[in-house]
Amino acid sequence: QRDFEGSPDMGGYVGRMGKSIGVADPLLAKILVANSGSVWVAIVALDLTIIDIEFTRQVREKASKNTGIPAENILLAPSQTHSGVAMTALGMYPNEDSKHWTDTINGIAIGIETAVNQMKEATIGFGRGDFRDYTINRRDPDLDADGELLVIRLDIEEKPIGILYNVACHPLLLDYRN
Known about the structure:
Layout: E1 29-36, E2 39-46, E3 50-51, H1 53-67, E4 74-78, E5 86-87, H2 99-117, E6 123-130, E7 148-156, E8 159-166
Helix pairs in contact: 1-2
């Protein structure tokens, strides 16, 4: 007997059939806004499973209207955490008609606006590394996995204030009951 409606055969996020029954950790949006002269960008790392083009369009439109950052210069990057929600207009998850959908869009747009208002001059550095010792292709371990690690570091007076990194990763640590 299981105490959670789901399917261990499907595994991970897809195996969850029931509604959320609690919160283990908060889901966050981490925002970096930068400009170099006339070019503005916003990078938003989201603790969400999936976002679709409609969700992205609405966030970009609202944030652009409030900040002047061109919509095409706003990057939304979901972490694809299987412990988070999917923001799609398909109706399978919170959709355009839900309060959760609207609140999430508004929260991200306000976060971008707040980041613009709190900007400070900083220097930027870039580096890359080899992460292959820590990655595998889980479907076929004999195939190479993308192991390139990219890092951007932001400093004020030679002290780090932020790090933005990118590495191909799809950790599968928790089952459908999470």
